[in-house]
Amino acid sequence: MLGNLWDTFYNQFHRSFIVDDRWKYLTNGLLTTILITVMALAIGLLIGLAVAYVRVTYDNTGRLRFLNALARIYLTVIRGTPVMVQLMIIYFVIFASTGMPKLLAAVIAFGINSGAYVAEIFRGGIMSVGHGQTEAGRSLGLSYRQTMSRIVLPQAFKNSLPALGNEFIVLVKETSIAGVIAVVDLTRGANIIMSLTYNAFMPLTAVALVYLGVVMLLTYGLGKLERRLHRSDRR
Amino acid sequence: MIDVKGLRKSFGSLEVLCGIDEHIGQGEKVAVIGPSGSGKSTFLRCLNLLEHPTEGEIWFEGVQLTAKKTNVDRLRQKMGMVFQQFNLFPHLTVKKNITLAPVLLGLQPQADADDTAEKLLRRIGLLDKADEHPARLSGGQMQRVAIARALAMKPDVMLFDEPTSALDPEMVGEVLDLIKELAGEGMTMVMVTHEMGFAREVASRVAFMDEGLIVERNTPEELFANPQSKRLQEFLSKVL
Description:
The complex is a heterodimer. Chain A has a single domain, classed as MetI-like fold (Orthogonal Bundle), CATH 1.10.3720. Helices cover 82% and strands 0% of the residues of chain A. Chain A has helices at 2-18, 23-61, 65-80, 83-94, 102-128, 131-139, 144-174, 186-197, 201-229. By secondary structure, chain B is α/β, with parallel strands linked by helices. In chain B, β9 (205-210) and β10 form a beta hairpin. The chains are: A mainly alpha, B alpha/beta. The A-B interface holds A 130, 132-133, 135-143, 146, 150-151, 154-155, 158, 231-235 and B 48, 50, 73-81, 83, 85, 87-91, 100-101, 104-105, 133, 135-136, 146, 149-150, 153.
C-alpha cells in the first residue's frame, strides 16, 4: 500500500521534472521571475521616490503644482485598475506594433504599477520624520533639497523599510500573471509542465514551494537590513 | 544687527503676533519671557523665517530677510538656532551632526570641519561621544551637541527656543552653563525661556510678551524689580 503510493509519487515526479529536463521550465522560469521582479522594483523605487518627492514638496511648499497634479493622476489610475489589465494594455495596446520583447513589457508594466505603491510608502515614510528635522536642517542654512536628501530621506527610507519589504514580496508574487502576455515565468513554467503531463499536483506544489522559499529568503534578508539600519536607534 | 518692524503673524484667523517692533544690537542678550501662547516662540521663529511673517519686515545685518529676492538660506548660516526638542539628526553620529552643514555648504573641507567639531566637543566635554549616535546621549548632552552644531557654522547670532524646557531638571544646569559661557564671550543672543533666574543673570535686556505684543522691555534688574504693567506683575507673581 505504502509502496504503491511511493511508486505513484515517484512516477509523477519523474514525469513532471526529470523527463526531457522539464525541471528547466522551473529554473528558467524562476530566473525570469527574479529578473522581472528586480528590474520592476528598481523602476518602482525610482518612480516612487520621484512621485513622493513631488507630492511632499507640493504639500510643504506649494511648489511643483503641475507635477503634483500629474502625480495624483498617475496614482489614481494605477491604483484604481488591476495590474493584469495594465500589463495587457502595455503589451497588446501600446507596444503591440513596436515588436518590443515581452519581457521588457512586463518589466515596465510591473515597474510602473509598483511605483505607485512605493510612492505612497515613501510619502508615509517622509511624513513620519518629524518636522523638527527639516527645521533643524533649514536653520543651519541648508536648502530645501539638501535638507531632504541628507536629513529627511535617509530617515524616511529607514522608516519605510517594513512597508517596502512588503511591497517587494507582493511584487514577487504579482509577477505570476506575466503569463498572460506569454512571458515564461515561474508560474507559466509550471503551467507548461502541467499541459505536457496532465498532472497538476507536482508542478503546482513545486512552484508554490519555490515562491515560498524566495519570499522567506527575502524576509530574512530584509529583516537583517532593517536591523542594521536601526542600529543607530539603540541606546 | 536684527531689526523687526511691524511684525504680524496669523495662523488662519488666529493672530499670534500683533505688530512687534524690536531692535537687537550686536552683543545684546535678549531674553523673551511671557505666558504660554503669548507668541514668544513664533516671534523667535520669525527671526530666521522658520515662520513667514504675515506682515512686517525683518532685517538682519542690513539685509531685509523678508524681501522676496533675499537668499534666506545664506543668511540662516549666520543665525544659529537651538530648539526645545534638540532636533539632532538621529541617523548621523554626533560628529557628523556637527560637520554636515559646514561641509555640505562648502564652508570647510571635511578634515577642517572634523577639527572644528572635535574642538567644540572637547569644549562641551563630549569628545568621547563623537562617534556615538544621538540616541545614546542624555537630554542635556543632546542639547549641548545641538548648541555645538549651531556654533560650528560660526553664527553671528544665536536663537534659543526654550532650550531647557524638554530637559530633566538635573540636566538644565549643564545646558544653561554652556549658554552662559557663550554669553560671556560676547555672542549676540535671543532666547525664549521660562528660566527667570537665568534670564535675570544672563540677559542684558528682557522683553515681556503677552497676547502677541511686547508689553514691556527693560534691563532684567528693572523689569523684575519694578514691573510696570499689570500683566507683567501678574505673570511674575505666578512664576517667581
